[in-house]
Design a protein that fits this description.
The complex is a heterodimer of chains A (149) and B (83). Chain A has 149 residues and is an alpha+beta fold. Chain A has one domain: Alpha-Beta Complex (Aldehyde Oxidoreductase, domain 3). Helix content of chain A is 36%, strand content 34%. The longest helix of chain A is centred in the middle third of the chain and has 18 residues. In chain A, 33% of the residues are buried. Chain B is of the alpha+beta class. Chain B has a single domain, classed as Ubiquitin-like (UB roll), CATH 3.10.20.30. In chain B, strands 2-1-5-3-4 form a 5-stranded mixed beta sheet. The chains are: A alpha+beta (149), B alpha+beta (83). Chain A: Converts molybdopterin precursor Z into molybdopterin. This requires the incorporation of two sulfur atoms into precursor Z to generate a dithiolene group. The sulfur is provided by MoaD.
């Protein structure tokens, strides 16, 4: 299990390949990469982060996922700092023997990352900066996985 | 006790972190918020709607009724928008 919180970019292909290197028991890998989307003249997005808690909280979410699905490997990488449109923000990659666990765990991890991992996005446009507001849709997406939390 | 602030909570208060001596009678996170609100305009602005601000004790999410006993680091921040 790998959890990293960093400012540097990541190589999603290399991270995903590392999950299965030397393994012949893994039948499914699901990977999700979240990118900085350049909506409405977005110049940049700066992610504020409580680094020490982010690593701990993501670790707890990974443990919850492992308790719920039979997983052979999990990698979560979340960046912070100033990112430009097109830059990768987050990677969730999950390996399992069969596809259902990998699909479900990857979606579970992303839904909970959005509502529980301590990151805050600030958008930068020509007119200034503004903090992104949390959405009810994200809360609802996480709540689908209840009663886990 | 060390306090840390993030995103617009930090901007409104004007510092990223501080160490405070709690007055007697502050038992929960909610009590701490009520006391912080009395410490100046920035704090009052940050906690103008306390229900919106989230808290963590020693890097774990907590509710306003959580006890501060044994807490070393308390964090306040807006609802999270990562991912």
């Amino acid at each position: 299990m790998t959890v990293r919180v960093q400012t540097a970019p990541f190589d999603a292909d290399a991270e995903t390949a590392a999950l299965t290197a030397g393994r012949t028991d893994i039948g499914a890998v699901v990977s999700f990469t979240g990118l900085c989307r350049g909506d409405d003249g977005l110049v940049a997005m700066t992610l504020d982060c409580y680094v020490e808690m982010a690593e701990a909280e993501i670790g707890r979410l990974v443990e919850t996922a492992r308790a719920r699905w039979p997983l052979e490997g999990v990698t979560v990488i979340h960046r912070h700092g100033r990112l430009l449109p097109g830059d990768p923000i987050v990677l969730v990659a999950v390996a399992s023997r069969h596809r259902r666990a990998a699909f479900a765990a990857a979606e579970f991890l992303m839904d909970y990352l959005k509502t529980r991992a301590p990151f805050w996005k600030q958008e930068e446009r020509a007119g200034g900066t503004a903090w992104v507001e949390a959405t009810a849709a994200d809360d609802a997406a996480a709540a689908r996985w209840a009663p886990e939390r | 006790m060390r306090l840390v602030y993030f995103a617009w909570v930090r901007e409104r208060i004007g510092v990223a972190d501080e160490t405070v001596e709690l007055p007697a009678g502050i038992a929960t996170v909610g009590d701490l918020v009520a006391w912080l609100k009395t410490r100046g305009e920035g704090y009052d602005h940050a906690f103008e709607n306390p229900a919106v601000v989230r808290a963590a004790i020693d890097r774990q999410h907590v509710k306003p009724d959580a006890s501060l006993i044994g807490a070393r680091e308390v964090a306040f921040f807006p609802p999270m928008t990562g991912g």
